Amino acid sequence: MFSTILVAVDGSEVSKKALEAALEEARVWKSELNAVYVIETGGFENIPADSTMEVVYNRLETIGNEALNAAEEGAKKNSLRYNSYIREGHAGDEIVKLSEEIGADLIVMGSHGKSGIDRLLLDSVTDFVTKHSKVSTMVVRL
Questions:
Q1: Distances from the Cα of 54 to the Cαs of 23, 57, 58, 115, in angstroms?
Q2: Taking the model in full, what pTM does it have?
Q3: Is residue 62 within 8 Å of 86, Cβ to Cβ?
Q4: 20 to 30 A Cα–Cα from 55, which one of 42, 49, 78, 113?
Q5: In this structure, are strands 32-40 and 82-89 parallel, antiparallel, or unpaired?
Q6: With the C-alpha atoms ordered 5, 22, 41, 87, is the resulting torsion angle positive or negative?
């Protein structure tokens, strides 16, 4: 039923549960697993670039690589085809765009992520994806 699955990861506990669910779905359906981590840069546009911003960006990139490495390990253990992506921008937009680019037929993500800021400023990333995605979205809760 699902041939190409996209899972959004951010290193949070609920993201780890979403990864577990995506791995299970990919194993059952013999699907390709794709994992994405989005470096949320939406709130940084009006902040002058300096060494502090570089440190923050590098830390976010490190967290992303750790989350994607965990996804890759899970894919290898389950003998799944696997691809990983790091994107920058609004997380919801980037997840929806990537799902269209790779032809995903299922998006798996946690009910919430690490940051509460997005919920204060905009709809949550999960809400955004479920409203704007053209494919099925599985929302995993803790």
A1: 33, 5, 6, 19
A2: 0.90
A3: no
A4: 113
A5: parallel
A6: negative
